[in-house]
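From the pipeline queue, job 12 of 40. The input is one protein chain; the requested action is below.

Action: predict structure.
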Amino acid sequence: MFATNKKFNGNTLKLAAIIAMTIDHAAWLILPRETIAAFICHIIGRLTFPVMAFMIVEGYHHTRDVRKYLFRLAISALIAHFAYAFCFNHPLLFDLRNGLIDSTSVLWGFTFGLSSLIVYHHEQMKKWLKVVLIILCIILAIPSDWSWVCVVFLLVLDLNYGNMKRQFIGMTVFGFSYALVYCLVSSWWSSFQFAVILAFPLLFLYNGERGRWRGMKWLFYIYYPLHLILLGVIRVAFHIIYPR
């Protein structure tokens, strides 16, 4: 599946996702909307979601204990929810009056995405029950950043596991579908959402290796809520009104 002469291992991809994510989140708080600078930062930030989704599927297929993997992701999603709410001045509890989508972090959606993979591969579970549970996972992922796409992305990547071209086609279809809906609901300035395709060259250079440093997974779990808390502190300290 992967050529060993390619340059990027899992740690490299995760580091790229962390940098792009930080730039994107900082831009939402600090830069005025509908400016060229903000647009460019958000384009860079679109690298994060496809890379994270890709690495979660890789993690599913290589982890020794998928239940522990799901538990770590769920705990991170719970902690990140409060950090996300603080950073972007959202209600701590889901509030339908302020819009359900984007009420919590992408880790919430990925938690149900990983759950859907576990359900799909469960050998003893009946097909009808799998369908019901996967639909439930999609519904429960709606409040997160990237919404239902978190679940669908992981399923598409998993169903085409071992065939990167088909994975890219699937990601493009559903990534562009989400971007189009986002533009129609918000404004065409949000067309930076289509930049998810820019992550594909990075993924194409993935060599299938995790990387020597085993602490990267823990760094991500710690860094994700921490950077949101720090940005939230900046928002409060400088009296930044969000959304700008």
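Job complete. Residues 10-89+98-237 form one domain.
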